[in-house]
Amino acid sequence: MKKLLVILCAIFLVFGVVGVAGAITLNFDDLSGSGSLPTNYAGLTWDSHWVYYDTYQPPYNPSSGAERIYTHNYGGWIDFGQDVTFLGSWVASYNVGQFMYWEGYNDGAKIYESAHLSGGAQAWLNVNWTGVDYVKFVSTTYDHFIIDDVSYDPVPEPATMLLLGTGLIGLAGIGRKKFFKKG
User: What is the pTM of this model?
Assistant: First the structure.
């Protein structure tokens, strides 16, 4: 019976840890050439204006690889379809009079706005926003920016955390029982 209990606790622990996702970074390098970003790229819903390309074009340098995205308007949006922790992205631009920033939303309500990055810069816009389901990139000028390495972390489901917690509690109980038996 004890062995069965230990095995069950170990299984709960393993499945609980496996279920907890890590950060996801979209670098767009699975795409090649140039074109419209697929509507459900990486399982997300994207503004139809996003375009990807890999042409060498300083100062619009990607953070990693060759591909990056931009829009032919004043920014664009990404709908995650669930609550996530949005970590940020790489941004590069040319127009010195421009400002760029991210906005974070939950259920249609704006809850975050990032620092504004001045045009002519190349930088990581770090936000680390918990509980957003939709983000919008805003540029104060038309078309003078690129984005790369969009990073987010899916929020673990309550059932996954329950599974992990059950496994940990079970292992703690078994350890405690063995400790008191020896004493």
Answer: 0.76
